[in-house]
Amino acid sequence: MDQFNRRKFLEGSAGVAAAATLGTGAALFTPVVQAQAPTFKPEKGAKLRVLRWSRFVQGDIDAYMVNVKKFIDKTGIEVRVDNEGWEDVRPKAAVAANTGAGPDIILSTNDDANLYPDKLLDVTDLADYLGKKYGGWYPAGQAFNRPDGKKWIALPLGAAGSMMVYRESIVKTAGFDSFPKDTDTFLKMFKAVKDKGTPGGMALGNATGDGLWCNWLVWAFGGKLVDESNKVVINSAETLKALEYGTELYATFIPGTLSWLDPNNNKAFLDGQISVTNNGISIYYAAKNSPDPKLKEIAADIQHASFPVGPVGTPTESHLYFNQMIMKYTKYPQAAKEFLRFMMEQEQFDPWLTGAGGYVAPPLAAYAKSAIWTADPKNTPYRDAVKNLRPAGYAGRLGYASAGAAADFVVVNMVAEAISGSKTPKEAMERAQKRAERYYKV
Q1: What are the Cα distances from residue 280, in Å, to 15, 101, 197, 432, 440?
Q2: CA–CA separation, 442 and 440 (whole Å)
Q3: Would you state the pLDDT for residue 9?
Q4: Is 218 helix (H, G, I), strand (E, B) or coil?
Q5: What distances in angstroms separate CA 74 from CA 41, 50, 67, 338, 409, one per listed residue?
Q6: CA 47, CA 416: separation in Å to the nearest integer?
Q7: In sequence order, what DSSP letters do the residues of 225-250 get, joined into one string?
Q8: Is the pLDDT of residue 212 over 60?
Q9: DSSP structure class, residue 21
Q10: What is the DSSP track for 258-284?
Q11: Is the pLDDT of residue 35 over 90?
């Protein structure tokens, strides 16, 4: 089957529509505190190179580049922006950090900053200013980018929410008037939509964003990769319960999910092959902004919901986190800080959130008031992704080990092996335990 290119699909459908909404709602809120702006004096002749993950909604990059041009026009500083896939940014960032050469600023995912904290510029002054001005950073951003509780090694950018995306009409036809809020009913719903010939499916390949449902699965039953002292405890009775549940859930999936990466469920959903999956808002964004009447019909039927709560009794949300790193080797640290300050200020950040159509949830509390979250009620479930985010390194401290284990898809691979039957749950847990210990014993 041809690999579905989500970027190409969205490129032609939504750029104009998203660009037309830029700036709406920018006047709806004012900064919480008129914080004293730090004085960054860009170096003479400064030039900046930015490496960032590729857009999954066209309006993201359109609005981002509008802001880049505003910065160039205001400062005269040349800025080059390169876009790469999530899986390509990580190794390129690691090479840059280890060789001391490459982009000045890198926008990456999850806790990649913790892979090489000593190679990153201290941005505490900038983070403190933005936090005071815009209602404070959510705890997840602090956990990821201020791991010692004092020094900021990178700046939070936001998160793409991993929410449940479903066809309302199909779920209702299957006998459910609302989306399930507990794991027992969730499983019953997956069985019911499969029986109706419109199954669900979630990625079990090494999908940076869409594989995050595996964290939810383990946590929902009380399992965790490590405990509070960073001891690896994934091989547990609680994880076993999660994998046993996952085995039943997987039996309802459409075939092929073991090889799914981030684009595959988008294609399957928009092709009408599945009725339920987990994803960012990009499926809805593509359908809503497409000129194709069939996709517009699907958009009208799409609803979003949080993952159900498992036996632990509390939400266990895992979302794709984004950070902004300034590399310590940059020749232009003042210019780089000024660029990030400019991009995070309300005059630029709010139009960017709007242009991205709700794809990125904000890391600063004040931006929850952005009009994008209520302009379309279907956007609202994505608003609090950073606020409700549990880092993948739960329940331990974030750092090299948590970043390495996440980048190596330890939990995703364990879930895939166990619930597909390629390994017994015991074998899958033992393998995950050993793989994780390699990182946590370093």
Answers
A1: 17, 33, 24, 27, 30
A2: 6
A3: 32
A4: helix
A5: 13, 18, 10, 11, 42
A6: 45
A7: SB-TT--B--SSHHHHHHHHHHHHHH
A8: yes
A9: T
A10: GG--TTHHHHHHHTTS-SEEEE-THHH
A11: no
